[in-house]
Amino acid sequence: MKIYREDYKFRSGTSACRWYINENDIPAMRTFQRGLPSQVTPVQKLELQSEDYMEQGVEEKTLFDLKQIDPLADKNKRFQCTVTLISIAENEQWCCRACRVCNSTMIPGDDGYQCTKIDGCSCKQYDWKYKVCFIGADETYSLQFMFFEKKGVELIGTSAETLRKQYDPSSIPPEISQWITHKFTFVVKVLFKKSVKNLEPSFEVLMIKERHGKQATLPNIIHNVSDDDLPPLVTISSKRKIEQASLSYTPQFTDIQDMDVDRQSDAWDTTKKHSESKINDDDNKNQLEHESKKLKVQE
Ligand SMILES: [Zn+2]
Protein backbone atom coordinates (compact mmCIF):
# COMPACT_ATOMS: atom_id res chain seq x y z
CA MET A 1 0.00 0.00 0.00
CA LYS A 2 1.34 3.44 -0.92
CA ILE A 3 0.22 6.74 0.56
CA TYR A 4 -0.52 9.87 -1.45
CA ARG A 5 -0.70 13.28 0.29
CA GLU A 6 -0.85 11.60 3.71
CA ASP A 7 -4.53 10.72 3.28
CA TYR A 8 -5.05 8.48 0.32
CA LYS A 9 -3.88 4.92 0.56
CA PHE A 10 -3.58 3.27 -2.79
CA ARG A 11 -2.10 0.31 -4.58
CA SER A 12 -0.68 0.61 -8.05
CA GLY A 13 0.53 -1.86 -10.64
CA THR A 14 2.06 -2.04 -14.07
CA SER A 15 0.51 -3.28 -17.30
CA ALA A 16 1.75 -6.78 -16.39
CA CYS A 17 -0.52 -6.80 -13.32
CA ARG A 18 -4.12 -7.92 -13.38
CA TRP A 19 -6.57 -6.74 -10.74
CA TYR A 20 -9.62 -8.65 -9.56
CA ILE A 21 -11.73 -6.25 -7.54
CA ASN A 22 -14.79 -7.51 -5.66
CA GLU A 23 -15.16 -10.44 -8.04
CA ASN A 24 -16.84 -13.11 -6.00
CA ASP A 25 -16.77 -15.92 -8.53
CA ILE A 26 -13.04 -16.48 -8.12
CA PRO A 27 -12.48 -19.16 -5.43
CA ALA A 28 -9.33 -17.48 -4.13
CA MET A 29 -11.31 -14.22 -3.74
CA ARG A 30 -14.03 -15.95 -1.76
CA THR A 31 -11.46 -17.45 0.60
CA PHE A 32 -9.83 -14.03 0.94
CA GLN A 33 -13.17 -12.31 1.67
CA ARG A 34 -14.09 -14.90 4.33
CA GLY A 35 -10.85 -14.04 6.11
CA LEU A 36 -11.68 -10.29 6.24
CA PRO A 37 -12.97 -8.57 9.40
CA SER A 38 -16.70 -7.78 9.46
CA GLN A 39 -16.25 -4.05 8.85
CA VAL A 40 -14.19 -3.28 5.75
CA THR A 41 -14.15 -0.41 3.30
CA PRO A 42 -14.40 -1.83 -0.20
CA VAL A 43 -11.73 -0.84 -2.70
CA GLN A 44 -12.83 1.69 -5.32
CA LYS A 45 -11.67 1.71 -8.87
CA LEU A 46 -10.51 5.18 -9.93
CA GLU A 47 -10.70 6.32 -13.51
CA LEU A 48 -7.44 7.99 -14.44
CA GLN A 49 -7.49 11.41 -16.09
CA SER A 50 -7.44 10.81 -19.80
CA GLU A 51 -5.67 12.86 -22.43
CA ASP A 52 -9.09 14.24 -23.45
CA TYR A 53 -9.56 15.57 -19.96
CA MET A 54 -6.14 17.18 -20.25
CA GLU A 55 -7.31 19.21 -23.24
CA GLN A 56 -10.64 20.34 -21.82
CA GLY A 57 -10.91 24.01 -20.98
CA VAL A 58 -7.25 24.67 -21.72
CA GLU A 59 -6.44 28.18 -22.83
CA GLU A 60 -3.96 28.77 -25.64
CA LYS A 61 -1.40 31.34 -24.54
CA THR A 62 1.64 33.05 -25.98
CA LEU A 63 4.76 32.89 -23.84
CA PHE A 64 4.45 36.59 -23.19
CA ASP A 65 1.03 35.86 -21.64
CA LEU A 66 2.38 32.87 -19.72
CA LYS A 67 5.20 34.97 -18.31
CA GLN A 68 2.60 37.13 -16.58
CA ILE A 69 0.55 34.46 -14.88
CA ASP A 70 0.39 34.42 -11.10
CA PRO A 71 2.08 31.20 -9.90
CA LEU A 72 -0.19 31.09 -6.84
CA ALA A 73 -3.56 32.00 -8.37
CA ASP A 74 -2.92 29.98 -11.54
CA LYS A 75 -1.27 27.07 -9.73
CA ASN A 76 -3.80 24.48 -10.88
CA LYS A 77 -4.58 25.87 -14.32
CA ARG A 78 -3.48 24.18 -17.50
CA PHE A 79 -2.41 26.16 -20.53
CA GLN A 80 -1.64 25.33 -24.10
CA CYS A 81 1.28 26.89 -25.94
CA THR A 82 3.26 26.31 -29.10
CA VAL A 83 7.01 26.64 -28.63
CA THR A 84 10.30 25.83 -30.27
CA LEU A 85 12.89 24.37 -27.92
CA ILE A 86 15.90 26.66 -28.26
CA SER A 87 18.30 25.42 -25.57
CA ILE A 88 18.69 23.66 -22.25
CA ALA A 89 18.67 25.80 -19.10
CA GLU A 90 22.09 26.72 -17.73
CA ASN A 91 23.48 24.92 -14.69
CA GLU A 92 20.66 22.39 -14.66
CA GLN A 93 21.27 18.65 -14.63
CA TRP A 94 19.12 16.58 -16.93
CA CYS A 95 18.37 13.95 -14.29
CA CYS A 96 18.15 13.65 -10.54
CA ARG A 97 18.12 10.99 -7.83
CA ALA A 98 14.48 10.35 -6.94
CA CYS A 99 13.42 8.53 -3.76
CA ARG A 100 12.09 5.06 -4.48
CA VAL A 101 9.31 5.48 -1.95
CA CYS A 102 8.03 9.05 -2.36
CA ASN A 103 9.76 10.28 -5.53
CA SER A 104 11.27 13.33 -3.77
CA THR A 105 14.78 14.45 -4.70
CA MET A 106 17.61 12.74 -2.80
CA ILE A 107 20.64 14.69 -1.61
CA PRO A 108 23.99 13.48 -0.25
CA GLY A 109 23.65 12.81 3.48
CA ASP A 110 25.78 11.46 6.32
CA ASP A 111 25.65 7.91 5.07
CA GLY A 112 24.72 7.69 1.42
CA TYR A 113 21.79 9.69 0.06
CA GLN A 114 18.83 10.99 1.97
CA CYS A 115 15.31 11.90 0.91
CA THR A 116 14.31 15.59 1.00
CA LYS A 117 10.62 15.02 1.77
CA ILE A 118 9.63 17.79 4.20
CA ASP A 119 7.93 15.62 6.83
CA GLY A 120 10.64 12.99 6.69
CA CYS A 121 11.21 9.80 4.76
CA SER A 122 13.79 7.27 5.80
CA CYS A 123 14.30 5.72 2.36
CA LYS A 124 17.93 5.60 1.22
CA GLN A 125 17.34 4.11 -2.19
CA TYR A 126 16.82 6.07 -5.36
CA ASP A 127 16.28 5.80 -9.09
CA TRP A 128 17.51 8.24 -11.70
CA LYS A 129 14.61 10.26 -13.11
CA TYR A 130 14.38 12.92 -15.80
CA LYS A 131 14.31 16.55 -14.82
CA VAL A 132 15.12 18.13 -18.17
CA CYS A 133 14.78 21.89 -18.25
CA PHE A 134 14.42 23.15 -21.81
CA ILE A 135 14.14 26.78 -22.80
CA GLY A 136 11.22 27.10 -25.18
CA ALA A 137 10.42 30.17 -27.24
CA ASP A 138 7.78 31.61 -29.49
CA GLU A 139 7.86 35.02 -31.20
CA THR A 140 6.85 36.78 -27.98
CA TYR A 141 9.15 35.43 -25.26
CA SER A 142 11.10 32.45 -23.94
CA LEU A 143 10.50 30.47 -20.74
CA GLN A 144 11.59 27.26 -19.01
CA PHE A 145 9.75 24.00 -19.70
CA MET A 146 10.45 21.03 -17.49
CA PHE A 147 10.12 17.41 -18.53
CA PHE A 148 9.83 14.97 -15.66
CA GLU A 149 10.22 11.21 -16.02
CA LYS A 150 6.95 10.30 -17.73
CA LYS A 151 6.99 13.01 -20.39
CA GLY A 152 10.77 12.68 -20.66
CA VAL A 153 10.40 9.03 -21.62
CA GLU A 154 7.67 9.99 -24.09
CA LEU A 155 9.92 12.59 -25.74
CA ILE A 156 13.28 10.86 -25.53
CA GLY A 157 12.12 7.27 -25.95
CA THR A 158 14.22 5.78 -23.16
CA SER A 159 14.29 6.03 -19.38
CA ALA A 160 16.60 8.34 -17.45
CA GLU A 161 17.98 5.29 -15.67
CA THR A 162 19.16 3.88 -19.02
CA LEU A 163 20.69 7.16 -20.26
CA ARG A 164 22.39 7.72 -16.92
CA LYS A 165 24.44 4.57 -17.55
CA GLN A 166 26.08 6.38 -20.47
CA TYR A 167 26.08 10.04 -19.46
CA ASP A 168 26.90 12.12 -16.43
CA PRO A 169 24.08 14.24 -14.94
CA SER A 170 26.01 17.38 -15.93
CA SER A 171 26.65 16.46 -19.58
CA ILE A 172 23.57 16.65 -21.75
CA PRO A 173 23.08 13.47 -23.79
CA PRO A 174 22.60 13.98 -27.55
CA GLU A 175 19.34 12.01 -27.20
CA ILE A 176 18.08 15.06 -25.29
CA SER A 177 19.83 17.92 -27.11
CA GLN A 178 18.61 16.66 -30.49
CA TRP A 179 15.16 18.08 -29.61
CA ILE A 180 16.52 21.61 -29.63
CA THR A 181 15.12 23.39 -32.76
CA HIS A 182 12.00 21.17 -32.67
CA LYS A 183 8.61 22.82 -32.33
CA PHE A 184 5.77 21.44 -30.19
CA THR A 185 2.32 22.23 -28.91
CA PHE A 186 2.30 21.49 -25.19
CA VAL A 187 -0.28 21.47 -22.42
CA VAL A 188 1.55 22.86 -19.39
CA LYS A 189 1.06 23.97 -15.82
CA VAL A 190 3.14 26.29 -13.70
CA LEU A 191 5.81 24.80 -11.41
CA PHE A 192 4.72 26.67 -8.32
CA LYS A 193 7.72 26.09 -6.03
CA LYS A 194 10.30 26.83 -8.71
CA SER A 195 8.38 29.85 -10.01
CA VAL A 196 7.96 31.67 -6.70
CA LYS A 197 11.73 31.56 -6.20
CA ASN A 198 12.47 33.06 -9.61
CA LEU A 199 11.64 36.21 -11.51
CA GLU A 200 9.89 34.30 -14.24
CA PRO A 201 7.60 31.29 -14.03
CA SER A 202 8.69 27.81 -15.15
CA PHE A 203 6.28 25.26 -16.53
CA GLU A 204 5.89 21.52 -16.43
CA VAL A 205 4.99 19.79 -19.67
CA LEU A 206 1.88 17.69 -18.97
CA MET A 207 1.15 16.67 -22.51
CA ILE A 208 2.92 16.73 -25.84
CA LYS A 209 -0.13 17.57 -27.93
CA GLU A 210 1.48 18.02 -31.31
CA ARG A 211 4.94 17.69 -32.82
CA HIS A 212 5.64 20.22 -35.57
CA GLY A 213 9.11 18.90 -36.37
CA LYS A 214 12.53 20.44 -36.73
CA GLN A 215 12.52 24.15 -37.52
CA ALA A 216 14.85 25.84 -40.02
CA THR A 217 14.68 29.10 -38.08
CA LEU A 218 14.37 29.77 -34.40
CA PRO A 219 11.82 32.25 -33.02
CA ASN A 220 13.11 35.77 -33.43
CA ILE A 221 13.86 36.62 -29.83
CA ILE A 222 16.97 36.51 -27.69
CA HIS A 223 16.81 35.91 -24.00
CA ASN A 224 19.18 34.52 -21.39
CA VAL A 225 21.03 32.14 -23.64
CA SER A 226 24.59 31.37 -22.67
CA ASP A 227 27.23 30.17 -25.06
CA ASP A 228 27.55 26.90 -23.15
CA ASP A 229 24.07 25.87 -24.14
CA LEU A 230 24.33 26.64 -27.81
CA PRO A 231 21.80 24.73 -29.81
CA PRO A 232 23.86 22.54 -32.14
CA LEU A 233 21.83 23.41 -35.23
CA VAL A 234 20.99 27.07 -35.47
CA THR A 235 22.16 27.56 -39.02
CA ILE A 236 19.61 29.46 -41.04
CA SER A 237 19.42 27.78 -44.39
CA SER A 238 18.40 30.53 -46.80
CA LYS A 239 18.16 34.30 -46.93
CA ARG A 240 14.56 33.99 -48.10
CA LYS A 241 13.47 32.20 -44.95
CA ILE A 242 15.15 34.88 -42.88
CA GLU A 243 13.09 37.56 -44.60
CA GLN A 244 9.91 35.63 -43.99
CA ALA A 245 10.82 35.17 -40.37
CA SER A 246 11.43 38.87 -39.84
CA LEU A 247 8.12 39.73 -41.50
CA SER A 248 6.22 37.52 -39.10
CA TYR A 249 8.04 39.03 -36.16
CA THR A 250 5.90 41.32 -34.02
CA PRO A 251 7.93 44.24 -32.68
CA GLN A 252 6.77 44.06 -29.12
CA PHE A 253 9.99 44.63 -27.24
CA THR A 254 12.04 47.74 -27.69
CA ASP A 255 15.27 46.02 -26.71
CA ILE A 256 15.19 43.69 -29.65
CA GLN A 257 13.17 45.84 -32.02
CA ASP A 258 16.05 47.19 -34.03
CA MET A 259 17.94 43.95 -34.07
CA ASP A 260 18.25 42.71 -37.62
CA VAL A 261 18.73 39.11 -38.59
CA ASP A 262 22.41 39.48 -39.43
CA ARG A 263 23.07 40.64 -35.95
CA GLN A 264 21.06 37.82 -34.55
CA SER A 265 23.03 35.19 -36.39
CA ASP A 266 26.22 36.26 -34.63
CA ALA A 267 24.52 37.09 -31.37
CA TRP A 268 26.00 33.91 -29.93
CA ASP A 269 29.45 35.36 -30.62
CA THR A 270 28.51 38.53 -28.82
CA THR A 271 27.54 36.48 -25.80
CA LYS A 272 30.84 34.70 -25.99
CA LYS A 273 32.82 37.90 -26.22
CA HIS A 274 30.86 39.18 -23.31
CA SER A 275 31.68 36.21 -21.13
CA GLU A 276 35.31 36.30 -22.25
CA SER A 277 35.59 39.93 -21.29
CA LYS A 278 34.11 39.03 -17.95
CA ILE A 279 36.84 36.49 -17.43
CA ASN A 280 39.41 39.13 -18.36
CA ASP A 281 37.87 41.52 -15.88
CA ASP A 282 38.24 38.89 -13.20
CA ASP A 283 41.86 38.38 -14.21
CA ASN A 284 42.46 42.12 -13.98
CA LYS A 285 40.84 42.17 -10.61
CA ASN A 286 43.05 39.33 -9.42
CA GLN A 287 46.07 41.13 -10.76
CA LEU A 288 45.05 44.33 -8.99
CA GLU A 289 44.54 42.49 -5.75
CA HIS A 290 47.86 40.82 -6.19
CA GLU A 291 49.58 44.16 -6.77
CA SER A 292 47.92 45.80 -3.82
CA LYS A 293 49.11 42.94 -1.65
CA LYS A 294 52.62 43.47 -2.97
CA LEU A 295 52.36 47.15 -2.08
CA LYS A 296 51.31 46.26 1.43
CA VAL A 297 54.29 43.98 1.78
CA GLN A 298 56.59 46.78 0.63
CA GLU A 299 55.12 49.16 3.24
ZN1 LIG B 1 11.31 9.60 0.14
Kindly describe this structure.
This is Replication factor A C-terminal domain-containing protein. Pfam families: Rep_fac-A_C. The protein is α+β, with helices and mostly antiparallel strands and 299 residues long. It has a domain of 183 residues: Nucleic acid-binding proteins (OB fold (Dihydrolipoamide Acetyltransferase, E2P), Beta Barrel). It has eleven helices and eleven strands. The protein has a five-stranded mixed barrel with strand order 4-8-9-11-10. β6 and β7 form a beta hairpin. The radius of gyration is 25 Å and the shape is globular. It binds zinc ion. Zinc ion (ZN) binds next to loops.
Ordered list of secondary-structure elements with their pairings:
Elements: E1 2-4, E2 8-10, H1 27-34, H2 51-55, E3 59-60, H3 63-67, E4 79-88, E5 95-99, E6 106-108, E7 113-115, E8 126-137, E9 142-148, H4 149-156, H5 160-164, H6 174-177, E10 182-190, H7 192-197, E11 202-214, H8 239-248, H9 254-257, H10 261-265, H11 267-298
Parallel strand pairs: 3-4, 9-11
Antiparallel strand pairs: 1-2, 4-8, 4-10, 5-8, 6-7, 8-9, 10-11
Bound molecules: zinc ion (ZN).
The site of zinc ion (ZN) has 8 residues, from loops.
Family: Belongs to the replication factor A protein 1 family.
Pfam families: Rep_fac-A_C (PF08646)
Region (Disordered): 260-299
